[in-house]
Amino acid sequence: MISGGRITDIEGKKLKDGQISGMAVNINIDEVRAEGEKMTVAYTFAIDYQPEFAKLAIRGEIFIQEKNAKEAAEKWKKTRQFPPALAEELLTSINYAASAVGTLVSFGLGVNAPIAIPRARIAPQEAGQPQKTKAA
User: Fold this and answer.
1) Residue 84's closest CA among 127, 124, 114, 57?
2) Lower CB density within 10 Å: C or N end of the chain?
3) Contact present, 65 and 18 (Cβ < 8 Å)
4) Domain range summary for the chain, segments of one domain joined by +
5) What is the mean pLDDT of residues 20-32?
6) How confident is the model at residue 59 (pLDDT cuts 50, 70, 90)?
7) CB-count exposure of residue 77 (10 Å: 0-12, 13-18, 19+)
């Protein structure tokens, strides 16, 4: 269960004037730490406005209270995956926080806001198949 979070760093840069043809949004999990029943997930939420128009990067941490925090952190380190319910909650939380902050930064740069994406859902993975996601 998500117990909190914070933004630790914000970067924004407008590279040129003109029209935006699209946005690429990337959420990267940078580090996972666990102590007892508490887990901290450090992330980077990056938006690239195309073509080479502007860039935003929001870094932060999400705090999770989880009975199996150490096991989840170890699994992440080995497989780069969280249990689906935790992954959904984590991605939704990161998206919400970073989209809110990104909207303020984008206004200052005069670019489109990184509008919140629908809640992420992780579909069960079949043996030998890549992980599938779908919007709710």
Assistant:
1) 124
2) C
3) no
4) 2-111
5) 91
6) very high
7) exposed
Whether residue 125 is predicted with pLDDT greater than 80 in this model: the reply is no
- Going by C-alpha positions, the residue among 28, 45, 32 that lies closest to residue 71 is 32
Q: Token pair for residue 118?
A: 């629908």
Strands 120-122 and 133-135: antiparallel
- Identify the H or E element spanning 73: helix 69-79
Q: Where do the DSSP E strands lie in the chain?
A: 2-14, 22-35, 38-50, 54-65, 120-122, 133-135
Instruction: Tell which residue, 98, 104, 18, 99, has the closest CA to residue 61.
Output: 98
Q: Dihedral sign, CA of 90, 93, 96, 99?
A: negative
Instruction: Give the amino acid at 99.
Output: S
